[in-house]
Amino acid sequence: MADADKSNSSTEFLDRPDGETIAYHFSGPKSRVQNQCCGVVFLGGFMSDMTGTKATAIEVHCKKVERPFLRFDYYGHGQSSGAFVDGTIGRWRDDTLAMLDNVIDGPVILVGSSMGGWISLLATVAQPERVAGLVCIAPAPDFTQELMWPELDETARHDLKTSGVYYQPSEYSDEPYVISMNLIEEGRNHLMLNNPIPVTCPVRILQGMADPDVPWRHAVRLIEKLECPDAVLSLVKEGDHRLSEPADLIRLTDAIDELATRADED
Questions:
Q1: What whole-number distance in Å separates Cα of residue 112 and Cα of residue 62?
Q2: Is 241 a catalytic residue?
Q3: Under DSSP, is residue 55 helix (H, G, I), strand (E, B) or coil?
Q4: Smallest Cα–Cα separation from 97: which of 73, 124, 78?
Q5: Is residue 4 part of a domain?
Q6: Which of 173, 177, 199, 262 is deepest in the core (most CB within 10 A)?
Q7: Is 183 exposed, middle or buried, given 0-12, 13-18 or 19+ CB atoms closer than 10 A?
Q8: Could you give the CA distance from residue 200 to residue 121 in angstroms, rounded to a whole number?
Q9: Which residue in the list 80, 142, 241, 248 is annotated as catalytic?
């Protein structure tokens, strides 16, 4: 419907009740009646968009194996409407649920990268009947409180408390991370790591041990809190935060295939 990105898929838009729009790319039949395969949904990270290496690599793979695939931009990200600074964890979770309700049918494997790992967990808790499995790459549940807030110095905290916004330099973009006090405070409503996490579907976690943003012990803490018995953590000794090298992408698509094939057979 709109511009095409590097994957050669067209962008569509889902209208939200508040007048905002979510940009997305979908490949494969949307209806369970048309396709009995379990679908795959990619959830990106903080200030990422749906045109990244992992999202497009998974799309290529899903097209090859004829599996429905959905990737999208959260509110304030990429081609979706809204200002990034106004986004929150709860808003981005609701965007994900809207995608599940309106764009893709049947059971799905949620693939969450970094912040997307947190969003995938929240979505699974909200709609456990829709999620057949989770694949998380450097998952960052509770990152606003556990990883971001402790790293902010007094100047940053002063800016947040007085102006409501802090601009943090990013290693991954020329644009700084835009951190709002609302993001921090609203994120506290969705913290998960202090209690058992009621996720019972199979979970596969891929985590780099050389990740400077999400320590590998954060993934260990997550897997300890998951209630599902079938949870596997794979550590990549030299792996960074992105885990986008060719070998990483093979591990990723293998994990997706494992869980999606099992869901097809159920």
A1: 16
A2: yes
A3: helix
A4: 124
A5: no
A6: 199
A7: buried
A8: 11
A9: 241
Q: Are strands 177-180 and 165-168 parallel, antiparallel or unpaired?
A: antiparallel
C-alpha dihedral, 95 to 119 to 252 to 219, nearest 10°: 170
What's the rounded Cα separation, in Å, for the pair 146 and 130?
29
**Among 211, 213, 218, 248, the one annotated catalytic:** 211
Q: Is the model's pTM score more than 0.70?
A: yes
Instruction: Establish if 116 belongs to a structural domain.
Output: yes
Specify if 137 maps to a domain.
yes
CA dihedral (120, 126, 129, 130) in degrees, to 10, reads: -40
The active-site residue, picked from 114, 190, 218, 248, is 114
**Domain presence at residue 138:** yes
Report the C-alpha gap between 20 and 10 in whole angstroms.
Answer: 19
Number of domains in the chain: 1
Domain housing 49: 12-265
Q: CB neighbours of 58 closer than 8 A, spacing ≥ 6?
A: 40, 42, 69, 71, 111, 252, 253, 256
Share of the chain above pLDDT 90, in %: 88
Q: How many whole angstroms from its chain centre is CA 158?
A: 30
Q: Which CATH number does the domain housing residue 152 bear? A: 3.40.50.1820
Q: Give the pLDDT confidence of 86-137 residue by residue, as tens digits.
A: 999 999 999 999 999 999 999 999 999 999 999 999 999 999 999 999 999 9
